[in-house]
Write a structure and sequence with these properties.
Number of helices: 17
Structural class: alpha/beta
Number of strands: 14
Strand content: 5-15%
Amino acid sequence: MPQAIPGGWRKAAGRDCLTAEIAEMSKPSVKKMEKEGESRKYPLNQIYFYLTEGCNLRCRHCWIAPKYQGKGNSYPALDLDLFRSIIDQAKPLGLTGVKLTGGEPLLHPQINEILEYIQTEDLCLTLETNGVLCTPELAEKMAACKNPFVSVSLDGADAGTHEWVRGVAGCFDEAMKGVRSLVDVGFRPQIIMSVMRHNKDQMEQIVRLAESMGAGSVKFNVVQPTARGEKLHESGEALNIEELVELGRWVDDTLSTKTNMNIYHSHPMAFRPLGKMFGENGDGCSVCGVLGILGVLADGSYALCGIGETVPDLVFGHAATDPLEEVWNNTSVLLELREGLPHRLHGICSDCLMKEICLGSCIAQNYYKTKSMWAPYWFCEEARKRGLFPEARMFQEGIIRDGRNYDMVQAPKVVRVKSGSA
């Protein structure tokens, strides 16, 4: 049976405090700074394939903003032979899984062959879809892959709300059929809702809908100020920082207690109760695997991730001409990230106790907004300006940075360390 293990979610045991295990996570970058010249290997764990330039929906919040592909028109999709070549080159570099996204991955004209190749190569599959094109036959092919995890976007508990967000009439019923097709072959898919002013009052209804359909979890996404999402922020349709902080608190403290289903929220981990992440029944924390992933765009270009669709600076070459080993091991942006995260982060990210795990939350978003890889995450920086960033998650006077001289004390929601040289 398919295993509903979302890619990118890390779970660690512990109590409602930062344990020695979390301190241990900080040590590699410290050692790297202290032992100059020491080489560290970075396996290419996962490739994000943005399979299509087009999408069959017109979502008003999309951070990639693909072209609308309706009946009678089409846009480029990743060449199948190129896809296979990339996989073949990536496996010696450590590849264990792929994520298929878009655009809309199920819109790819050879999606059956792509899924078959993933199965043949024994790679773990993560797939993000709007569900409209998810037939029973495709669901079976996904289920045949190793440890498959599928998420389906539902941005409203009724057709009117969902289709207002997604921009195409009839897509709600088709998405519901897609979810049922997945459940029928043994999946417990994740339902993803991007929260904005228009649909925020339906969050609990989405949880109830997901429960009734046999989904395994619900994830609420913050709308990012990128591409179309930037326009939502400018228009006021995206929630402001005060609303976002309060909403995250409500999800953790109230909504998650009303269901046995796993509920995730994409607000930064600095705002979450530590027990919710690292306690005995904690659900882990959402962290970007930026140091172990690479994006492949629909035209075959290598990029940091899908941000390459809107930020050419973060495109690193092309799969038809540039050997993947060379791109992964010698691209200046990737090398700079490996050397600089997290100690070169600026602003609130520099001052945050969680930076060794969080790594600035989303480097792509930070760069889009500021043209700096070391810029702080917009959510956290805005929260600090408004006095909303949790003081218990910030370095205080007498607390040592960069992981030196850790003396972990099991006090709730704070790390205490001995005084010493910074």
